[in-house]
Amino acid sequence: MVHKDIKTLKEGILFGMGNPLLDILSHADQEFLDKYKLEKDNAILAEEFHLPLYDELFQRRDTEYAPGGSTQNSFKITQWILEVPHLTTFMGCIGNDKYGEIMKRKMNFYGINTLYQVQNDISTGTCAVLVDKDKRSLCAHLGAAKNFSKNFLNENLKVMHHAEYFYISGFFLAVCPTSILQVAQHALQHNKLFMMNLSAKYLCECYKEPMMMAFPYIDILFGNESEVRSFAVEHHILEEDLKTVALKISQFPKKNNNRSRLVIVTRDMNPTILASDNILEEYPVYPIDQKNIVDTNGAGDAFVGGYLSQLIQGKGYEECLDYAHKAAYIIIHRSGCTFPENMKFDDALDQIKRSE
Question: 3-class DSSP state for residue 144?
C-alpha cells in the first residue's frame, strides 16, 4: 500500500453511515442498572419500559452530554488525529430540534462533513451511557436515527462516489441494511475498501440475516471478544481459541478477491488479535493501571478512529494498530468518547503518559 501525504488527502476520502445520537453520560450503580434491566459491558436498544430512564438522567446534576453514535465517535477521533478538516463524511438522520442543532454544530467543530436527513416530527436519538467504575452499559433510543431512508442516500450519491474508504457501524443494520448493501456493492465494483463493526452481541443474534447479506463485502471487520464469540456461536464455530475463531471468520465467503478479509479483535487490556489469510498475530495494548481507568465507553469507537486515521494515509496494519491503541488509551482516561478539544492528539497522549 502506497503512503499518501496527509496534505494531499482529498475531502471526503472516508465515508460512513450510522445512528447520530446525543450521548447522555452519568454514573449508575447496580441498583440503578437492575431497575432498568441493564447489564454492564453491554449495549442494547431501548424498549418502552426504558424510556423513563432518559427523563431521570435529564434531572441529574452530574449528567453530561456529547454528540455520539458509534460511527460519529470514530470519525471524531480520526479528524482529531489528522487535523485536516473534512476528510470524513457522515450520513445519518436527526430530528429538527435543539439536540439536532447541537449535533450539527459539534460535528462541524470536529471537522466532519455531515449530511443529515432531518425529521420534523421525531426527536433526535439519544444514548444513555451509564458508568460504574470501569464498566459501562449503553441503552440507545434511536429516535429519528431509525428513520434514515435509502432515498436520502440516493439523493446524495456524489459523496459516496467521491470516497475511497467506507466504514459503517453494525448498529446501522437495525436501521437501513439496504443502504449498507448499496454502499458495499459500490465499494466492490470500484475496488474500494469496505469496513464494518460487529458493534454488539445482540446484533449477531437478532440481526443475523442483514449482517450476513453485508458480510461477503467486508474487507476489514472490527469486533471485541464478546461480540466475536457471539458471532461464532451463531455460526457454529466451536473452537475455544479466539485466534482460531478470528481466522475462521476471516475465511467466510468474500466477493472481492483482490484482498483477504482482515478480522481485528480487541480484548480490553489483552493483546489485540489480527487474523487473515496472511496474518495471525497478537499485538499488545498500551499498559494502564486499573485505578486510572475512568470509563471504557467509547474505547472501541476510538480504536477504530485511530486505525482509520492511518489507513486512509496508506499505512500498514502495524502503524494503523499503533494509533488505534493510542486512541483507545486516551479515551479510557476520560468519561465517554470525548477528548480535550484544545489539545492535539500527541500532546494529550504525552500528558497522560507523564501522569501515570
Answer: helix
Give the separation between CA 82 and CA 165, rounded to whole angstroms. Answer: 16
Q: Give tens-digit pLDDT for 260-319.
A: 999 999 999 999 999 998 899 999 999 888 888 887 778 999 999 999 999 999 999 999
Residue whose C-alpha is closest to residue 275's, from 299, 239, 313 = 239
Length of the chain: 356
Tell me the pTM.
Answer: 0.91
Asked whether residue 188 is domain-assigned, the answer is yes
Angle 70-82/98-110 helices, nearest 10 degrees? Answer: 30
- CATH classification at residue 199: 3.40.1190.20
How many distinct structural domains can be found in the chain? Answer: 1
Torsion, Cα of 110, 312, 321, 134 (10° steps): 20
Mean pLDDT of 165-171: 97
Is residue 175 within 8 Å of 145, Cβ to Cβ? Answer: yes
Given the DSSP bridges, would you call strands 270-275 and 262-267 parallel, antiparallel or unpaired?
Answer: antiparallel
In a domain, 210, yes or no: yes
In 249-274, which positions are buried (b, 16+ CB within 10 angstroms) versus exposed (e)?
A: bbebebebeeebbbbbbbebeeebbb
Range of the domain at 224: 6-18+69-122+143-355
Among 152, 175, 147, which residue's Cα sits nearest to residue 45? 175
- Comparing CA positions, the residue from 139, 130, 121, 125 lying closest to residue 67 is 125
Catalytic residue among 62, 301, 346, 350: 301
Q: At 134, is the pLDDT very low, low, confident or very high (cuts 50, 70, 90)?
A: low
Query: Does some domain include residue 29?
Result: no
Active site residue 301: yes
Contact 165, 15 (CB under 8 A): yes
**Grid cell 435509502 in the structure block, residue:** 150
H helix or E strand, kind and range, residue 283: strand 280-283
Plot region of 206 (φ>0 → left; ψ -120 to 50 → alpha; else → beta): alpha
d(CA 303, CA 300): 5
- Asked whether 261 and 276 are in contact (CB, 8 A), the reply is yes
What kind and span of H or E run contains 214? helix 208-214
Is residue 137 in a domain? no
